[in-house]
Amino acid sequence: MFKAIIFKEWLKIRWTLLIMFLLSVGILVNIWVNLAYGLRFSNPSDFWAFIIFRKYVFFSFLQYFPPVAGLGLAIAQFFPEMHRDRLRLTLRLPLPENLIIFQMNIVAILAIFSLFLFNLIFLLVFSSIYFPSEIVKNIFMVSLPWFLAGIATYFGVATILVEPVWIRRILMAIIFYGFLQTFFQPAGIYSYQKVIIFLVLLVFVSALGIYYAVHHYQKGLA
Amino acid sequence: MENIIECINLTHYYGRKLIFKDVNYQVKKGSTFGLLGKNGAGKTTTINILNGYLTPSSGQCLIFGEDSQHLTPSTKSRIGYLMEGHIQYGFMNIHQIEKFYAPFYPHWKREAYFELMAKLNVSPKQKISKMSCGQRSQVALGLVLAQDPDLMILDDYSMGLDPGYRRLFIDYLKAYTRSEHKTIFVTSHILQDLEGFITEAVILGSSGILYYGSIKEFMEKFHCFKFTARGFPTELKKNDIIQNIEIIREEVNLYSFRSGAEVQSFLRSMGIQYSHFREVTMSLEEAFIGLTGKY
Amino acid sequence: MLVKIARLSLILITIFTLAIFLPDFYWKAFEQQVYRPFAQFSPVLKDFLVTKASKKGPHYYDTKGHTYTRSEVDSLLPFSNARQLLFENRFPDSLDGKKIDPEEVRTNNFTLRISPSDINQYRIDMYPLFESQSGRVRLEMPTSFFRITKRMEFINAADNKIEEKLSSLFSGALQNFGFQFPAQLIAGNPTTRKPFDEGYFIVDASRHLFHLKMVKGEPFIHPVPIPENLKITHLVVQEMNLREFYALMITDDSRIFLLSYPDYQLIEVPVIDYNWNSTDVRIIGDLFYRNVMCYNEAGLSCQVCDRNYHPVASYQEWWGSRYQQKAGIISEYLFPFSLQIRQETTMFIGLFLRISGIRSLIGIGVAVLLTWIFLSVRGFSVKRNWLEFVIVMISGIFGFIAIILYPPLRDKF
């Protein structure tokens, strides 16, 4: 039965996933080309100094991608369910309702996780062509909060889509936007080394909200 | 005889507005049960409570002995639903949707589904969202039949369907009910189709249950009497003898559960002069309108 | 059960977000600017001349309360305002019986500023080693950056490959001086915009300090003896034509030392109220004095000493913390605590919690009352929903907003 749910979710998200994949490749290739260009047409030492001492983040454009991916996948997955109350069909399947939602989330998270892992590896691999491990390690630490934010975005948007009451949706969206700012302090200037575990915990906490929204959806109560 | 569905002291308010209060009825195994009533009488509310999508203000509904708000997965697999508007996953085609549902139901009957699909004039890759209303209803019907559920709950299966599709539904459902173990719970506006199909019914009005029992008895016990009254008998209103009354100038249609003799003696006691007193046979639809009123 | 946990997680996220944004927004709306004074010791007055901005413009005063005009200040602080005085032909020939030359004044002026955030930050430990005696006037950016891990490696910036010759040369030289790899702290001035280069000061794995330079392509290494009890937290290298000290050193116990020319003598800088974790220190040096200004959250402590670092005088001025402003007092009523993820003293993102004082109990009381009203009006049993009150008692208005947004689960009527 989990296989059937994987099948259904895959049907919904496959094209969005492909688009996100291509988008991320486009962004990363663009960053790569610009990086190589920058190194070729300037003094490489000056470029390294710019990165090390002036905290220049050559890949800062990438930060927009994970939240967009999380948003897109949540919409691809839940918008068809919310349209004309199809979520009721899903919740009527002979499984515990929370398990159904959990399985739906798992499918999307596996997809997002694979996508982000691919992005991260791609970024780190081409960076290590040009930079030593000290700089590559920093690239990892700078980009990690963005990917975590992308996962949190998926959960937040899914929760907001399932929640039936409009006022609550809007307020949730506002608060969630504020919540995401935690992950997006000016890149490179502020370091997240000390709070990464906490950010991971926050992502796990954000994964739970959807069960409250589903409860509301099911019971027809405000 | 086992009660498949039981509604116990069901009461619901939307805000301050009372929908129904202390409603009680049971659906027995093997019956084809109709939930009838005008719009706003509480049919959709009841269906939502049965489906677990609404928590009643008080009271409860039991399905297979379990509270409808907390059905176990194994019980859910015994219930087949047809949602209003024949809602299904629009992004799948007919093969994908069968492939999706099959693993969930232990007695899945592929042949039942594909037999129906063969009659559909759709290409195999066509998405359900791109089908016509009638075609979608056929898909929904096929899926429910393939599930082979012990209880089928159909919420307004006829909405948006041409007469042809409505007939198709009834034919298939009738064939389905020939097995003694199957129970059907259906709501519909269009009573012509239900005539000859449903065996029992609850008829809801604004004040609660107007009738609860077998259709056969209903048709036997509920009468429509026509007569011509002299003068304008404005004093004739609903009471415990008169279920409903329509007065057009001097022509009166009187609906009652009482016999013709009782009604006539009542009229005489009211001092109403009448003539051409006769009983009129009604179809189920006419009886329904007679009971619930035209407006 | 899961639904209850889900609700609590939504409430947690809401309280977390509100605790960051509401106080932040509140301060942005209501905080009044506090002007910090700047104190320099005047060789003319033999007293501190304090500059403080205000809405009406800067005003200048001494410790006895006399005020001065801008033009008077120029003469009272001739070392800082040499250019202006020369321009107006008011530059003094001598002070305190000593002849003073504008060129000498210029050479002797310097400013050193160290904030806690300079120390509390993540460092990519790769640095350019300049050729300190190339024969050219201007310093040139080298082709490689070095790191000191298991050995000292130079990595070419153009091809990201190790320059093996240079690496072996320097690694060997360090080993010869007993350097224990890896380095714990590397401090230098990695810019070409300086008059000359003094290389790097490096603390090795056994806490010994070394001075490292490249002279005509060869390694120059000098161990710098430091007393065992001093634990180096931070080093600042700033090359100046003055050539008084190589570097400034801050120890774990918040003492400040200079490593002086030529033999790395440790000179302690007298300082008042300095804590490297929270104090912004500014050292203004001129021909006669060393002004050491320590800015803390609520005040300035200034210690001035002579050129031999003997204390001469000190000055302190306090201003209220922002919680003593009217807006601050009200904020204590409103918010039982506030959260920040950034703080001025560090470049690391963290969780900085500030719990308000007793006044917040009033705000919490109001929030509890509002919660009680909300629950009653909505038909919730107050007894069964005791958890809501616990939440609001801890988080005040934040919790109240969260509870309105995510009401408790209905018990069956």
SS-derived structural category of chain B: alpha/beta
Number of helices of chain B: 10
Order of helices and strands of chain B: EEEHEEHEHHHEHEHEEHEEEHEH
What count of structural domains of chain C?
Answer: 3
The end-to-end distance of chain C, rounded to whole angstroms, is 19 Å
Question: What is the number of independent domains of chain B?
Answer: 2
Number of helical elements of chain C: 9
Which structural class matches the secondary elements of chain C? Answer: alpha+beta
Report the β-strand fraction of chain B as a percent range: 25-35%
Radius of gyration of chain C: 29 Å
Total strand segments of chain C: 24
* Corresponding CATH superfamily of the largest domain in chain B: P-loop containing nucleotide triphosphate hydrolases
Which strand order spans the largest sheet of chain B, edge to edge or round the barrel?
6-7-8-3-9-10
Q: Radius of gyration of chain B, Cα only, in angstroms?
A: 22 Å
Name the helicity range of chain C.
Answer: 25-40%
Structure overview:
Chain A has nine helices and no strands. Chain A has helices at 2-41, 44-53, 65-82, 87-91, 97-130, 133-162, 166-181, 196-206, 209-219. The radius of gyration of chain A is 20 Å and the shape is elongated. In chain A, helix 6 (133-162) runs antiparallel to helix 7, helix 6 runs parallel beside helix 8 and helix 6 (133-162) runs parallel beside helix 9. The model of chain A has no long low-confidence stretch (mean pLDDT 94). Chain A has 222 residues and is mostly helical. Chain B is an alpha/beta fold. In chain B, helix 4 packs antiparallel against helix 5. Chain B starts with a strand and ends with a helix. The model of chain B has no long low-confidence stretch (mean pLDDT 86). Chain C is of the alpha+beta class and 413 residues long. Chain C has three domains: 2-32 and 327-405, no CATH class; 38-89, no CATH class; 110-269, no CATH class. Helices cover 27% and strands 29% of the residues of chain C. Chain C has helices at 2-30, 70-76, 82-87, 102-108, 116-119, 164-176, 326-334, 360-377, 386-405; strands at residues 38-42, 47-52, 59-62, 67-68, 94-95, 98-99, 110-114, 127-128, 144-148, 152-156, 185-188, 200-203, 209-215, 218-224, 232-237, 245-251, 256-260, 265-269, 280-285, 289-295, 299-306, 311-318, 337-340, 352-355. A five-stranded antiparallel beta sheet of chain C has the order 7-19-20-21-22. In chain C, strands 1-2-3-4 form a four-stranded antiparallel beta sheet. In chain C, strand 3 (59-62) and strand 4 (67-68) form a beta hairpin. The longest helix of chain C is centred in the first third of the chain and has 29 residues, at 2-30. Chains in contact: A-B, A-C, B-C. At the A-C interface, helix 2, helix 5, helix 6, helix 7 and helix 8 of A face helix 1, strand 8 and strand 9 of C.
